[in-house]
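Please fill in the sequence for the structure shown.

STRUCTURE ENCODING:
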């Protein structure tokens, strides 16, 4: 029987064309059509998922999943090039994006879809290049302090050259807002 999870949505993201909404409810990823309300469950795991977002082309979802007692990054992709939507797709494939011995979560696509920014061990901001599989540190752990999951925020600039970040003021116990090059080279600008 269908289960109403509308009161249990903890986060969501709208697809680039506005036709779908991905959301997390009861620790699972779902996608719903904005026009028809038709909803599709994307994950079905005993552990929880969170931080779901659409790729810039709308054909992939990225999220963090707690699998095997550790947070890692996963993606689900549409497998049929003729199917533009998740809510009524016949083929969806999940693959790991980053599984390591570190806790990794809060993934965010770069505007061109080639890279993913994420948090490692709750406080280190890194960027993973999907082609090379290599990560680079953007903001070290010493610049952040985390009380609870999800209390660190960052966002890509529209051109993908910068990340807007919150960081800990070196001389005071206060959060600041800054810009830092997404290349991993260059200084943090308050």
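FILLED IN BY: designer on duty
SEQUENCE:
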């Amino acid at each position: 029987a269908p289960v109403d999870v509308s009161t249990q949505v903890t986060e969501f993201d709208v697809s680039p064309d506005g036709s779908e909404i991905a959301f997390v409810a009861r620790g699972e990823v779902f996608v719903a059509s904005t026009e028809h309300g038709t909803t599709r469950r994307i994950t079905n795991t005993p552990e929880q998922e969170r931080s779901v977002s659409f790729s810039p082309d709308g054909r992939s979802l990225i999220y963090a999943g707690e699998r095997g007692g550790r947070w890692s990054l996963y993606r689900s992709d549409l497998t049929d090039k003729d199917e533009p939507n998740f809510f009524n797709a016949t083929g969806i494939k999940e693959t790991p994006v980053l599984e390591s011995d570190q806790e990794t979560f809060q993934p965010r696509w770069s505007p061109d879809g080639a890279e993913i920014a994420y948090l490692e061990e709750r406080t280190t901001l890194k960027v993973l290049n999907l082609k090379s599989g290599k990560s680079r540190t953007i903001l070290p752990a010493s610049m952040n302090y985390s009380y609870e999951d999800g209390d660190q925020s960052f966002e890509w600039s529209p051109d993908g050259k910068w990340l807007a970040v919150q960081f800990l003021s070196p001389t005071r116990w206060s959060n600041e807002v800054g810009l830092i090059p997404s290349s991993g080279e260059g200084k943090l600008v308050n």
